[in-house]
Amino acid sequence: MNEKDPDQLKLENQLCFPLYACAKEIVRRYKPYLDRIDLTYTQYITMMVLWEERNITVKALGERLYLDSGTLTPLLKKLEGKGYITRERSKEDERSLIVSVTETGDELKSSAADIPFGIGKCVALEPQEAVQLYTLLHKILNGFENEPEK
Amino acid sequence: MNEKDPDQLKLENQLCFPLYACAKEIVRRYKPYLDRIDLTYTQYITMMVLWEERNITVKALGERLYLDSGTLTPLLKKLEGKGYITRERSKEDERSLIVSVTETGDELKSSAADIPFGIGKCVALEPQEAVQLYTLLHKILNGFENEPEK
DNA sequence: ATCAGTTAGATTGTATACAATTTAATTTAG
DNA sequence: CTAAATTAAATTGTATACAATCTAACTGAT
User: Fold this and answer.
1) Chain A neighbors of B65, CB-CB under 8 A
2) In a structure prediction context, what are the per-residue pLDDT tens digits for chain B, which is 150 residues long?
3) For the domain bounded by A24-112, which CATH number is listed?
4) Are A18 and B65 in contact (CB under 8 A)?
5) Domain boundaries, chain A
6) Which residues of B touch A31 (CB under 8 A)?
7) DSSP-derived 3-state class of residue A69
8) Which helix (H) or strand (E) holds A87?
9) What whole-number distance in Å separates Cα of residue A35 and Cα of residue A32?
10) Fewer C-beta within 10 Å: chain A N or C terminus?
């Protein structure tokens, strides 16, 4: 496990690569399901937060989704265009934009209800392995939160 | 674990989301290291395959990296522009494009030698947990390979 | 109260990703 | 052998991502 072990630069010895590839491939497999409700994957996880929170600022949404305004601003404008959300400035702090789910957006949730099950079928893990993976990923994500301020 | 359990649509109950977020955040943490050698993450994993294989067709490269020509063609043209690779049609089959690492591209490998170690520090996992994660991710990826032809 | 510093979003520019289509080369079926 | 089918890249169009910058709104220290 040397710091300069040249084998560390082999693709098969990387941890990040299977993570990257897996995430990408699973998101790709969402597409046929998401096409039916006219959402992309990023739009879908955004709606997921809104189905739960009803309304949320762009900043809080970005923290939940690990996305910044450069990604969210155009995406939220698209969701607004589809009529699934509204965007309005906060009365208390005009800098903040509050995103809220519309009735149409809410109705989408029932159409999405079978998606997690459909995706589950394409991930070839036993239930207890899925829990293991979930735990490990969240451990990494929590590690990021405790990172030193840059 | 009902097929229509509404809680399945909560972000925190998703397996794909932490996968997506983790991959994205780790790639983002590569940036300062990769900036030094003027590569993006996708260019880096491409070079990693080339450091190992010396030369490879675009098709085989795409299979290794789970990327298609729509992503690879412009990326490979950039790597060619930087002088790290060459691109030439195969003599045996003019449809195939063979990508080869140049001497300059090869020299890059030693500059990259400390990157895996640097990234390792920002992933807060014990060595045995990293192995566990590696195993689970490869199990999912292998599951994809055995998928029915569409 | 004022202005320097901070904060929230929006914007700009670059680089992926990928579906769908196109083009050229190769293979195969009749 | 030749037309049809297949294959490998390239191209086109849409949608992320994210760093860097910008703008407007708020905060805080004096």
Assistant:
1) 21
2) 555 566 888 999 999 999 999 999 999 999 999 999 999 999 999 999 999 999 999 999 999 999 999 999 999 999 999 999 999 999 999 999 999 999 999 999 999 999 999 899 889 899 999 999 999 999 999 998 877 543
3) 1.10.10.10
4) no
5) 24-112, 114-150
6) none
7) helix
8) strand A85-89
9) 5
10) C
